[in-house]
Design goal:
The complex is a heterotrimer of chains A (about 375), B (about 290) and C (about 260). Chain A has about 375 residues and is of the alpha+beta class. Chain A contains 9 helices and 21 strands. In chain A, α3 packs across α4 and α3 runs parallel beside α5. Chain B has 12 helices and 2 strands, in the order αββααααααααααα. The chains are: A alpha+beta (about 375), B mainly alpha (about 290), C mainly alpha (about 260).
Chain lengths: ~375, ~290, ~260
């Protein structure tokens, strides 16, 4: 088991964008430290470099600069095998020509572990993964979910596995089994106290799996690392705010004047508690509020802002409305019983304690 | 639905009946008759087959053919895999390699014969001249070892590129993740080949083995041009044997040989297919 | 890394030595071919090529080859595309057996088929025509074409057909507008393989033609084995027969290997 640290990580690569086209990507000056024995999710939009980062950690690719440390020791120059990491891929990888037992035993056989030790270990891991019944079956005939379990099993069968890296492991799994498999992953992680890095573009997967979530933005930078609660409630950048939550945080351009936030089409007073000294009057602020914190009313109220209802989406438990005022469009989550009608007005209020303020891609409040 | 399917198959079935079914039935018909030019064919049942089976020249041709076909598979398949593994995976080098490999396949058989005739003929060829430097008196037309060996090397030269192309396509379709997983699992180069590459190549290898096996029976114009089937009958393979019989209007005999030929190829192909389909699938580890 | 490349280069050199020798011979005079042993032509001559270009026999036989090869490709595709579509979309009674029977035709001994072919096309009054050779070559090309195309077509989800019909496309319109563009690469690969086979084939082409449709591969056989063979001329003609193939292979290089890999086994 190990903590994982990346120092001044730098890598460029060409990604194939379908037929013949390629495009260069770059990850620069990236620093992360993940604690030992944690369930970590590396979350980001498709094509942001998550898989590259993962492959660098496992040693499948070598970064062009910076270093990778396991438990404080530099492993940048070590081979994949010497790092003792395991990796589970997007498409389940099993050795078709062996049965499940042979698959699980394969890494140990390569390490020349004694036969009876292999047998003990295979049974132990099969027990944890609940695949004892499958041991004699040809691995190629399993359903994807079971293949993925075998693949994970090969990863954790070595007693000295430092970390397990999972690259969108649920992509090809039957949706009905995704939940079970994710729970299994979490259970294995807890039971063995193993460091697991789980790469995904699905925030729901990330937030339910991880103790720590690291969010990468499109430009290959780390936007934020924190617990799921911190990520949700305290986004460091508008990107994180918008990326997390469904729908994501409303972000509106605004400027600050002596009286408050000026949105051109409307204005609101500066919330109590916001220290005016930390803010200077000026443009280029982004005002953020999550849809679920926007308060709404069918009637006009003092100090509330009038918006026009553009779209109403009814999820059954609540309604998501898209509201418009001037050039601004926001989303608001409103109670199911509110009889909102498209093209009618709706008055909204942004409670002070839920307002986030960004400037130049950074949180200032 | 059923009717619609047959409607779609109709053009194909009409042409195939013209170019395959009717000729095949004609051949089967020949094989059941004694046929002499100028007189009515006489129905003789399986007599032609019995005559063929007892004929030592047929037995020799069949034996020669089976040895040749076996050698084709034993040499061309591993060689093809090795070359495919050595080819560049992408880039200009890959494109150039593919084009170069395609060229021998596009040379008409007769020209392949001419190429090799020019290459090996004792008066004008380069091979006899070069071997003479090493003190070896090479003669493709007269030496009973040089002749079959040259035909075999010609076949290796001509058809290994097809095996390479097939294997190359198969290799390209193996996702990187399989190699990465093997690397992480600490597999050696040999084990990676044995447990990742080879199993993943199985469908393509089945195809390569079957195609090469079937087509190796068709070798005809190469010995005809290079050695004329000799010296003696050392390069008279089955197609050449049957063609000789047909040319000398022993149609009943030739028909029987053809039916046996077809039976042998179909049977062996089916056996290869069955064996390779199940070979090494989920072997038990304990 | 290095060793691998050296081995590969050696392989390609071996692969091209025989071809080089033919090219080399084609530029030599008959005198030099027979009297001297030289790794390159001492005096380069284009006489061999000029003789082919100016001879009507050679020109016609090149044309004949091209005509029946194209005829064959067209007939094969017209018959194989609907057939492959049927195999890829419907599991009807006997479909597996029919598919297997089709493939066994590839194994048929061409050498014996020539006599029934000759009889058949005489009866149909097609003997010594381009159409006869084109039809006869279908014996090998239709099975191969159906095989490759079926592989490509099975890769296209059935839902696409259904969606198109729901959207009100008629079958011909669906085929032309939606399905055809999707299988176009597969059709290209198939056409390439049919072209190749029909172009290189000798036995059937030789048996079914006398003069009117005599292809270049047959013209080449004339005179071989006799005394006083014009080796330079044959070599030049041989070189010329490689050129169409080389052009085609250049255009389909990216699809070539794929075609076989996608066929079902």
């Amino acid at each position: 088991m190990a903590s994982i640290e990346l120092k001044d990580f730098y890598h460029t690569y060409d990604a194939r964008m379908g037929k013949g086209e390629t495009s260069s990507f770059c990850i620069e000056n990236l620093n992360i430290k993940w604690g030992d024995g944690k369930a970590i999710a590396l979350l980001g939009p498709s094509g942001c470099g998550k898989t590259t980062l993962l492959n660098a950690i496992s040693g499948l690719i070598h970064p062009k600069g910076g270093s990778i440390l396991f438990n404080g020791q530099d492993v940048t120059a070590l081979s994949t095998k010497e790092r003792h990491v395991a990796q589970v891929f997007q498409f389940p990888v099993v050795y078709d020509s062996m049965d499940v037992y042979g698959n699980l035993a394969f890494p140990l056989k390569n390490d020349r572990v004694p036969r009876n030790e292999i047998d003990r270990r295979v049974k132990e891991i099969a027990g944890i993964l609940e695949i004892e019944d499958l041991l004699e079956l040809p691995a190629g005939n399993l359903i994807p979910a079971d293949k993925q379990k075998v693949s994970l099993g090969r990863g954790i069968i070595r007693p000295d596995t430092a970390a397990v890296l999972l690259d969108e492991p649920l992509t090809v799994i039957d949706p009905k089994l995704q939940w079970t498999l994710r729970r299994k992953l979490k259970q294995v992680q807890r039971q063995l106290g193993i460091t697991m890095v789980y790469v995904t573009h699905d925030q729901h997967e990330a937030l339910t799996f991880a103790d720590i979530v690291t969010i990468m933005s499109n430009d290959g930078k780390i936007a934020q690392t924190g617990t799921p609660e911190e990520i949700h409630n305290d986004p460091y950048t508008p990107f994180v705010g918008y990326f997390i939550g469904s729908p994501g945080m409303n972000i509106m351009e605004c400027s600050i004047t002596s009286t408050g936030f000026d949105f051109d089409d409307f204005a609101i007073p500066i919330p109590v508690g916001l220290n005016e000294q930390t803010l200077s009057a000026g443009d280029n602020y982004q005002f953020g509020i999550r849809p679920e914190f926007v308060q709404a009313s069918m009637e006009s109220r003092d100090g509330w802002l009038p918006f026009t209802i553009e779209i109403v989406e009814d999820t059954g438990a609540y309604k998501i409305t898209t509201l418009k005022a001037g050039k601004h469009k926001i989303k608001a989550r409103i109670p199911e019983e509110m009889p909102v009608v498209e093209n009618n007005p709706l008055w909204v209020h942004f409670p002070d304690k839920h307002i986030k303020l960004f400037q130049g891609n950074k949180r200032v409040f | 639905m059923n009717n619609r399917a047959w409607l779609f198959l109709l053009p194909m079935l009409i042409i195939m009946s013209l170019s395959a079914f009717i000729p095949l039935m004609t051949v089967v018909n020949y094989s059941l008759h004694y046929i002499f030019s100028g007189s009515m064919p006489q129905y003789v049942g399986l007599a032609n087959y019995l005559e063929v089976m007892r004929d030592s020249s047929f037995q020799n041709a069949l034996g020669r053919q089976l040895i040749f076909s076996t050698m084709v598979l034993v040499v061309q398949i591993p060689l093809g895999i090795m070359i495919a593994l050595a080819l560049p995976k992408k880039g200009t080098g890959a494109t150039i390699s593919l084009v170069l490999l395609g060229i021998p396949l596009l040379i008409p058989y007769i020209v392949v014969g001419i190429v090799w005739r020019l290459f090996t003929q004792s008066d004008i060829g380069v091979v006899p001249k070069v071997l003479a430097l090493f003190g070896y008196a090479y003669n493709v037309a007269l030496d009973p070892i040089d002749a079959p060996l040259t035909i075999f090397l010609l076949d290796v030269w001509h058809w290994t590129p097809l095996v390479v192309l097939l294997c190359y396509a198969g290799l390209q379709s193996i996702p990187d993740a399989f190699y990465q997983a093997a690397q992480i699992d600490g597999a050696s180069t040999w084990k990676t080949f044995r447990y990742v590459t080879l199993p993943k190549l199985r469908p393509v290898l089945i195809l390569a083995v079957l195609l090469r096996f079937m087509d190796s029976f068709k070798i005809y114009s190469e010995p005809l041009l290079l050695t004329g089937g000799g010296p003696g009958s050392s390069t008279t393979y089955l197609s050449l044997f049957v063609a000789r019989k047909a040319e000398s209007y022993e149609l009943g005999y030739a028909g029987a040989v053809s039916v046996i030929y077809l039976f042998v190829v179909v049977t062996f192909s089916f056996i290869f297919f069955q064996i390779m389909k199940n070979l090494g699938k989920g072997e038990h580890s304990r | 890394m290095k060793k691998r490349h050296i081995a590969l280069i050696i392989y390609f050199i071996i692969l091209f030595i025989p071809i080089y020798w033919m090219v080399n011979t084609s530029f030599k005079t008959d005198g030099e071919i027979l009297r001297e042993f030289s790794l390159y032509p001492k005096t380069i001559t284009f006489d061999n090529y000029m003789e082919i270009f100016t001879s009507e026999v050679w020109r016609n036989s090149f044309m004949n080859s091209i005509i029946y090869v194209f005829l064959n490709v067209i007939i094969t595709l017209l018959a194989a595309i609907p057939g492959a579509y049927a195999f890829s979309r419907w599991r009807f009674r006997g479909s597996h057996h029919l598919f297997f029977w089709l493939l066994t035709n590839r194994m048929a001994p061409a050498a014996i088929f020539i006599i029934p072919f000759t009889e058949l096309y005489y009866t149909l009054h097609l003997f010594d025509t381009h159409l006869a050779v084109a039809l006869a070559h279908c014996l090998f090309n239709i099975p191969l074409a159906v095989w490759i195309l079926e592989g490509f077509m099975s890769g296209i989800p059935k839902e696409i057909d259904e969606t198109a019909f729901v959207d009100g496309y008629s079958f011909p319109k669906f085929f032309r507008k939606i399905f055809f563009p999707l299988v176009a690469p597969g059709i290209g690969v198939t056409a390439f393989f049919c072209f190749t086979f029909s172009w290189v084939e000798l036995i059937i082409a030789k048996a079914l033609t006398i003069t009117d449709a005599k292809p270049v591969v047959v013209t080449l056989t004339v005179g071989i084995g006799a005394e006083g063979v014009k080796w330079g001329l044959l070599a030049a003609a041989g070189v010329l027969t490689i050129i169409p193939g080389a052009i085609v292979v250049y255009f389909v290089r990216n699809y070539m290997a794929k075609g076989f890999a996608l066929g079902r086994v």
